[in-house]
Amino acid sequence: MAETVIELDLSSPWEPPEPPRAPLRFRLRTRWLAALTVLAVVAAGLTAAGAKPRTGPLYQIDDQVRTVMVTGDMLIVGRYQQALSGTRIEGRRLSDGKVLWNVPADLQQMYLTAGDRVLIMIRHSESDRGYTSTLTGLDLATGRQLWTRPRTGLTGTAGGLLVVEDMPDPGKIIEIVEGGELPDPTINHAGDPQPRHVLVLDERTGEPVWELTTPPGTLLDFTRDAQYPAGSVTGVEQLDPTGLVTHRDIRSGAVVATHQLDWSGTPAMFSTGYAWFVAPGAATTRALVYPDGERGGLVFALPGGRRLFRTDVTLYDGFYQCAKDLFCATTEHGIAAYDSSTGRSAWRLDGYTQVMATRGDRLVVGTYEQPDSMPGRLGIADARTGAVTVELTGWRLIDRAPADRILLWRAVDERTAILGELDPATGRIAVFGKAGDWYGPPECSTRGDILACVMVGEATVWHLPPRHPGR
């Protein structure tokens, strides 16, 4: 199987090999025609692209950078402790990296995300009474604190709104008695069901727009317009013990649709596809329920609620829709695929343990790897047969890439890497950047046509290559 890579040597322009020498007059005429041809090709390329292609970084920030996040027209930078100040968060202009504001922050226990106009700081803390988190909203343009909300977990954003949930009482902790018998992992366990309180907040004020409280035994799932954790929340799905699925609009809380499943009981897990790969944002067509106290799960058709099949895949092995007509699961040796309407085995692929992305009838498959380990396997498989069509030897995925773009990196030597974008339909990789001081998997953030990565205290910002038809 072939690997097709469009690699750009970023150090010097490509030159064709020397042809056999010809008579002087013919050589001069040939060079003149060749020069005109090159100029015409370059002019046509620049006209089509609208600008000269960028292969180098936009800029770098080379002093004690811990994290970066691209959001709107801002670059949010978290810094390690400086000599005269503690750890801080900076708001920088995305186009050139100019610092617009900075605020102190404890980055050891803090994560960042962003809404439309608000930066959300999520501070996690633990004690002998359990785990909790506090949300704080900052104005993206100025860094000014707008509000804070204790004991609140963030589910996602939704166009000026924040979807959050009240944290359980920190006094409710699970105690495992030493020497006690552990639960059977092949049997579904609902645990100790608790009521849930979901709030949809105005991101500027932190005040609720609407709220939802569910009784014990009811499970929730949140739909998104892109594969989790990217994208905005679009709706909330509620499964009651009666088997009733209620879909609410995330902006108003209004009930949009209801579906009665051909089932009732206590669910241990329920999903309509928030973590699945197929058609993010499209209408939900399947529901997966793992009943408490049983082995395996049940797949239902939505709408209608008809039970399609039972799967023996355990709750902890993962069962998800990986392509239009397929569910996938991780096995001891690789990936198993099943027909999404009947549950019948479609194919098995050994040597790869997870589906990383889906594009039509092409699956990007790989193996789990520790951050400091050698590269695992990465390839493209045909969703119809499970056959690997392209081996992407040495390439590794860049995490948190946009849902519609697959970005990769590959080490050139111990401290240099090249960056590229994969077209799964053809297996071609368009290399768009070269990075120095690159010693392993980076922390990256992307939005639109901008990629920012941190490696060993240095942040680098690139323009992504122009999109091409079919990619």
TrEMBL record:
<keyword id="KW-0472">Membrane</keyword>
<keyword id="KW-0812">Transmembrane</keyword>
<dbReference type="InterPro" id="IPR015943">
    <property type="entry name" value="WD40/YVTN_repeat-like_dom_sf"/>
</dbReference>
<protein>
    <recommendedName>
        <fullName>Pyrrolo-quinoline quinone repeat domain-containing protein</fullName>
    </recommendedName>
</protein>
<dbReference type="Pfam" id="PF13360">
    <property type="entry name" value="PQQ_2"/>
</dbReference>
<dbReference type="InterPro" id="IPR002372">
    <property type="entry name" value="PQQ_rpt_dom"/>
</dbReference>
<feature type="transmembrane region" description="Helical">
    <location>
        <begin position="32"/>
        <end position="51"/>
    </location>
</feature>
<keyword id="KW-1133">Transmembrane helix</keyword>
<dbReference type="InterPro" id="IPR011047">
    <property type="entry name" value="Quinoprotein_ADH-like_sf"/>
</dbReference>
<feature type="domain" description="Pyrrolo-quinoline quinone repeat">
    <location>
        <begin position="96"/>
        <end position="348"/>
    </location>
</feature>
